[in-house]
Amino acid sequence: MISLRNIEKSYPVGPQRSYVLRQINLDIKEGEFVTIMGPSGAGKSTMLSILGMFDGDYTGEYFFNGEPVHGLKPKARQELGKANVGFVFQQYHLLDDLTVAENLDIPLSYRNVKKGERQGRVAEVLDRFQMVAKKDLFPRQLSGGQQQLVAVARAIIAKPKVILADEPTGNLHSEQAKEIMELFRTLNQQGTTIVQVTHSDLNATYGNRIVKLHDGWVVS
């Protein structure tokens, strides 16, 4: 499903270049649950940004279901990402001027889902995450943990082929964290491909493969 070939990401620093990712070769099969681990600064979030098709400023080749992502123009790349990928950001990235329900509706609007079906799916997810009473609140009215739950709900609502999660339980207490990881496990068992970045050894046990990064290199 996902194939990275000799991916490199760097920034100019004076006359030199500072590399964030070096010669990344990685294949992720449909239905896998992959965990990316490594110390701070290893390039984990940068790799997720490339996988999520937010970042096109790299060298090398990225194929998604055979589509050469590296050869797409920015708009086409972003459309491919929106249609196939759900993203759980470390910092939530909820839209401050939209309510919880409106934030959940956004990914469905990208996929041209009819209004009636969108309303039904939003209601279903609100109920699943026990957030019906908070549907008309704005992100600033929620705790950090509640915002993260909304971010996870938004990532899964459109039933994407791939979920990318950057420290998905970092702001949750242990019971909420377990609930989210169990949800990811269920989605994976139902066929959703999941790639998570985490420092948590416990979260890593939910996946079936660990990729370790160090200074931008895959070391194992």
Task: Describe the structure in brief.
With 220 residues, the protein is an alpha/beta fold. It has helices spanning 44-51, 74-84, 100-110, 115-128, 144-156, 174-189, 201-204; strands spanning 2-13, 16-28, 33-37, 59-64, 67-68, 85-88, 162-166, 193-197, 209-214, 217-218.
Which descriptors would you attach to this protein?
7 helices, 27% strand, Rossmann fold, alpha/beta, single chain, 220 residues, 6-stranded mixed β-sheet, 4-stranded antiparallel β-sheet
CATH superfamily: P-loop containing nucleotide triphosphate hydrolases
- Strand tally, please? 10
- What do we call the CATH topology? Rossmann fold
Task: Please summarize the sheet with the most strands.
Answer: 6 strands, mixed
The helix content, as a percent range, equals: 25-40%
Which residues form runs of ≥5 with pLDDT under 50?
A: none
Through-space gap between termini: 20 Å
Give the name of the CATH architecture: 3-Layer(aba) Sandwich
